[in-house]
Each structure stands twice: as structure tokens, then as C-alpha cells.
Amino acid sequence: MILPVISDIHSNLDALEKVVEKIDYGRILCCGDIVGYYTQPNECIEIIRKLKTISVTGNHDLACVTGDTSGFNPYAEQAMDWTRKFINHRNIEFLRNLKRKVMLKIDDVNIMVVHGSPRDPISEYIFPSTPDSTLKSFLESENVDILIMGHTHVPFIKKYGDKLVFNPGSVGQPRDGNNRASFAFLDVSNMEVVIHRVKYNVDKVVTSLEDEKLPSFLGERLYKGI
Questions:
Q1: What dotted CATH number matches 2-100+166-224?
Q2: Sign of CA dihedral 39, 185, 105, 162
Q3: Model-wide pTM > 0.90
Q4: Phi/psi at 50 (nearest 5 deg)?
């Protein structure tokens, strides 16, 4: 079974649409942060709903529901204030009902999806440089074969024997120096994952930020992929 895996869309509709064009099979998994930063939260959630995506909640999704932006930088806070004004009730309820962890069992393979980490599903950042001992401890403590995390916007793949840990990167705001939208295909049967990148119209997203008078920095980082 091949599963498309996405994360950190952040209301970037053009990026999401380009990614979805590359996905023509499989149940989609999402590591959260559907909203935040950019200007089309309702449209992005509608796509996620239409595709029956299995998603967990991210820190921006939670902030959208609660209004609590503790720990956000000023750019993220301003964008979230804007998002909460424009998102509709139906989509707020969708975000409210997202779980912090999702467990799946496919072909006797146990899979966990979280935004941050198993020990802190909302806020912990797990980077490629995180010690192997930490990643292995997650696999052991959660009794899973595949652990999928988002939040950092930095893709990585780590394999430990017949166990797998990975981050698909960010659809809507890549931060690994590559400004193309990032997502992954997970081959459950063979315990393999491949990261894919796709171009989208960054200019269009930046123009929408300007139209809504949101911070220019949010557009500048899209060009640089940081």
C-alpha cells in the first residue's frame, strides 16, 4: 500500500493544489498545521475534508481553535489573528475535532502520526539532527513500526532495522533551503518512503499576503525556502 503523506500546509492553497495534482491514489495522511501564516485557510480545509484526509492537529490548528498564540513569533501571531477572523464556523469545528495522535494498523504495520513528537504532540521540534537514541526510544515507547512527524518543515528519513521514522517536510512553507512544496509517498509493504518536491506559484501567494497587509517576511521566506 502506498500512502501519500503531507504536513504543514499553512493555508497555502496554491502549494496544496500542486501537491494534490501529484497524488492520484491512496489514503492521505497529514501531520497537521493545515492553517496559519497564509491567506486561504477555508479553501485548504475544504480540500482536506473532500479528500477524507486523516490528519492530526498542529500548533497553529490548535491556536486557531483556542486563540492562544503563546510561543508564536510576531509574524505567526499576526497571521493567526487574521486567520481567526476569516475562517468559517464549519472549518473551526473541523479543526476542533482533530486528534493529537493518530494510530493506524496496515498489513500488521503499526503507524503513528503526530505533529510534534509522541511525548509532546503539539510543540516539540524533532529535527534531522535529533539523536538516534531519542527516535528509537519513541518507536519503543509507542510500540510502533513507523513514526511520522511534522512541525519543523524540514524533511528527513531515518531507518532503524525494520522501523522507520520520517518527516515529509512542509507543503506550504518549506524551511530546508528548497522552496518547492514537500510531501512524501510511504510504501508500507516495503517500509520505504520517498520525499517529493513540486513547484508552485510563490508570486501568487505573496500577492495575497500584500492584499491582506500581512507581514512581508512570510512571503520572503517562501522564495528562499527558509
A1: 3.60.21.10
A2: negative
A3: yes
A4: -60, -40
